[in-house]
Write a structure and sequence with these properties.
Helices cover 23% and strands 31% of the residues. α1 packs across α2, α1 (2-16) packs across α3 and α2 runs antiparallel to α3 (41-52). It starts with a helix and ends in a 5-residue tail after the last strand. A hairpin with a 5-residue loop joins β8 (159-163) and β9. The protein has five helices and eleven strands. It has 211 residues and is α+β, with helices and mostly antiparallel strands.
Length: 211
């Protein structure tokens, strides 16, 4: 019965374009298959049902691998789509009362790299540039020194992005040092800091260190 209810709700929001204020589970069910091709609608419904039943929320995806729902609240969801990838979904309230869906896809090997995208209530892509500006490499270092200068010479920029349940903060971390030899990685990591943002109804605003 729960599956039927969620399916009907999901189809309603998909067809009508009406936003479910503060309910990310309904957005998850209604999202286009093109954005989450590994999981059919029934798989998504199963994940929600398992989570609500206090069970481990794991299903077999279309590639015969395992996908797991790791976190679910009214406005935030995180799913491990495969052994090396995760997807986060966050509902953001705009200043005009409308809602944006923020999606962060992360792929991990030795280090993780994330991609952030935004969608409107009809699942149309919204330009990222006015909503989020990625930090420069310098901002990840506590101070500018020979280490930060040397890291800037690398052509590779790997940054992980984490959204938050129950609050509108976003954190970014520079992960490239994880590809270095262990001692070098620890040395560089000791000089790094997270770059934090907060949603203000218009965009993700960068916070000063310590805020």
């Amino acid at each position: 019965m729960k599956k039927i209810v969620f399916l009907l709700i999901g189809l309603f929001y998909l067809l009508s374009g009406t936003v479910a204020q503060g309910n990310v589970a309904e957005r998850f069910v209604a999202m286009p298959d093109s954005l989450l091709p590994l999981l059919a609608t029934n798989d998504r419904l199963d994940l929600i049902d398992f989570h609500n039943a206090k069970m481990r929320a794991v299903v077999t995806n279309k590639l015969d691998g395992k996908s797991e729902l790791l976190a679910l609240s009214d406005d935030y969801l995180k799913i491990k789509t495969s052994g090396s990838a995760t997807m986060q979904m966050k509902l953001l309230t705009r200043s005009d009362g409308d809602t944006l869906v923020c999606i962060v896809n992360t792929v991990c090997a030795e280090a993780c790299n994330s991609y952030i995208r935004f969608y409107d209530k009809e699942w149309k892509r919204v330009s990222t540039a006015p909503l989020f500006v990625a930090p420069s490499l310098d901002e990840f270092f506590q101070k500018k020194d020979s280490v930060s200068v040397a890291m800037k010479m690398s052509d590779i920029r790997l940054v992980s992005i984490s959204l938050s349940a129950g609050c509108d903060t976003l954190s970014t971390n520079y992960t490239m040092p994880l590809y270095m030899p262990h001692d070098d990685s620890l040395f560089v990591a000791s000089r790094l800091q997270s770059v934090m943002y907060r949603w203000d109804g218009y965009r993700y605003v960068k916070l000063q260190p310590g805020n």
